[in-house]
Amino acid sequence: MKRSFTKPHQDTASVAADARAAVISDTAADGLLVRIQTLSRVVESLPVVVYVDEPGAETPRYVNDFMDTLLGLPAGEDRPSHTLWYEHLHPDDREQVLAERARCRNDGEPFYAEYRLTTGHGGIIWVSDHAREVQAAETGARVCIGVIKDITERKETDLALRRSLMLNEAVLATVTDLLAYLDLELRVQHASASFIAVLDTSPGEVIGRSLADLLKPEGDPLAEALARCRGGETQRREIWLDLPVGGRRCLDLHLVPHRGGGGVLGIVAIGRDITAAVQQRVALEEREAQVRSIARNLPVAIVRYIELPDGRSRTHYASEGARDIWEVAAPVVEQNAQVLWDMILPEDLPATRASVDASRQDLTDWVHQWRIRTPSGQVKWLHGRGKPRRGADGVVTWDSVIYDESARRQAELELDRLAHSDHLTGLPNRLAFQQTLAAALERNAERRGLLALLFIDVDNFKQVNDSFGHSAGDRMLVEVAAVLGRQVPAGQTLARISGDEFVVVTERAPDQQGVAALARSLLAAVEQWRFRVDDQEIAVSVSIGISLAPLDARDAETMLQTADTAMYRAKQLGRNRYQFYDPSFTEAVQQRIAFENGLRRALDEDGLVLHFQPQVSIDDGRILGIEALLRWRHPQRGILLPVEFLSIAEGAGIIGPIGEWVLAQAFDTFAGWKRAGIAPPRLALNVSAKQVADADFPRLVQTMLRRFALAPTEVELELSEDLLVEEGGESLRVLQALARLGLGMAIDDFGTGRSSLAYLRRLPLTRIKIDPSFIAALPDADAAAIVRSIVSLAGSLGLEVIAEGVETRGQADFLAANGCPAVQGYYFVEPKASADVEPLLAARQLDPVGGASA
Q1: Is the pTM of this model over 0.70?
Q2: Which residues have CB under 8 Å from 363's CB, separation 6+?
Q3: How far is CA 793 from CA 656, 764, 786, 796, in A?
Q4: Per-residue pLDDT reduced to its tens digit, 58-115
Q5: Which of 495, 337, 364, 359 is nearest to 427 (CA)?
Q6: Is omega for the bond preceding 550 within 30 degrees of 0, making it cis?
């Protein structure tokens, strides 16, 4: 191909000797020729296109041979290479490239561009073009020297990467899961649109911040998981958090390490909203646990017994109580119903058979008493009741309850035998108990068996004693002793060792499960019983600590001490339960002391706060009142609800100061709202049983009302139903004094306590609050019936009624349809800090948030 410059051995010198070279001396020309020849050889061998351009020229004056190779042209084509560049410049790029070249020449700037060339076979390649102007030393002429490189591969890679990034962005923009990429400092480097949307913020507010800071999960469960993931472990957690969009939600959070270069480069966080599934799972688990707990704790066996038309029988279901009654496991009873018939004493078998036949024939209720001999040889009296039903196939099914009455009969005999030991109850006294326990421990050491000591303490006995007098307290202890005695098997010792403390010595305990069964029966018996005094029914419960020998102690003193410690632990856990001794309880006591100290500091150092939740009209959303709710900002555990620390406050003796702080803070806040003209008609706040039992409490309330210039009619005190019953007569006098001041009073969580209707009529109440558990269970038929009954009861007593815990449209519609005029719950608004609730108060009317469907 012919060139503008001739190669040195092919007249290259003649091409270079233009008109300007004529003025150069012969010596300079010879030197220039040599340099041109040398440079030409170098340039022609380069794997890039080199060109020389002169000012004013549209196309390069000189282009080396690599242009042919770059464009894929056939060898030997006879046309100047410098015209090829212009001809093969892509039409879509030509105008822009030429304009940029002209601009750079005019401005004296280097030229750089990336553009396309068409190849000889019709393809397209991408090139980079970089040129700059230089001045020849010999001639002083200015020329532009440029280099063109093939960058097609890089361009294609860039385009592929860009398309991939666009695709990823499109995918991330459509997924509903929350996605984020964290660096090793646990800061968010990228987040999906859904992630940013639920935070109700902008990408700039998300990028660079820590995941924990953005989500603020309850209980801080992320620290350990993130640390493990950063160490290379995939993690999965269920976390609860309050989101700006959606409120309180549960996320199934996956943390996956991003690996590369032999290590972890970052963390991929994937969160899926599983709130509905978790709530459904929890509801099912709670319902199952309730049913199982009832069946397990009842001192009975629940049996579904079936007889076929051909006379064969089988047991479809037997509760865990079957083991205690027949001394065989429930699965054995379910597999073979005949085992129950085989244990019936021969003299009782005909009557038992006749009772079942009569019930099957007439479909009448089956009620019968009979005796059995268990595999251990023990004779038991059983009492059974069942309701039959016949299916279309002739099969008759009884859902029956079988009671073991042996313990009751034997306990009565035991009480008669042990009369006159304790002057009040007739039980063995402390000295007799110590002798009995010491002898039992000796026998147990010889046979190397298991001996159990159950330490029983009556819950809240002092309150009954203080409220109704010592005479009532003594009578209560006598009745409690009788209730416990009916549950203690023959051969075991029940004793009263001090005021409201009882013990049971159980020799030859079969195992820990058997001891637990005895404890459960004691708890259930007391819980089902009512103490009647002054025309009132008082619910009573006990707490039980259990020590086992030789596991926990080998002498009487140590055994009593460990059982006492276990009982104290049972009270810490909420009373009305049993607890086996564990050496770790010593550490638990220390932890409790630390918790108490933290609560004291919170009271002194503004660690307590109040949140507020409006109470609204079900018809139009008008704000009818607002409830003040106590919270503790714990430095390690975050926001704690009252149920998590008020029992500790009572035990520590600071429930009074806390209650006074709540009154002052709530009244002060409400007074501020009044001055701003946004206060609702009523302020509701909870008071504790200790406050209600304090004769000075009405005087404190009156002082607070005057201090903050509040009218008594603007304040409503909410009281626990169970606490009112437990506190007795003094509570009634305090409430009557508060009523005389003009304050409203409501029973909180109504329907879960154990107060009688007669007691309700004596209380100076203005409102009933339906317990949230009934609202949550809607539209369950039983729950619906209870809610209707409470609404009707309130109307018949002339009381207002409000439903707590309303979270769905379906619940709100049900309450409206059944005459409940006021509601409170997340369906309208969650509890908020005072500053956050003020805009709602100013609006005076709420719309449902609609966070949940019916």
Answers
A1: no
A2: 388, 389, 390, 396
A3: 33, 15, 10, 5
A4: 667 778 878 888 888 876 555 565 577 888 999 999 999 989 988 888 888 899 999 9
A5: 495
A6: yes
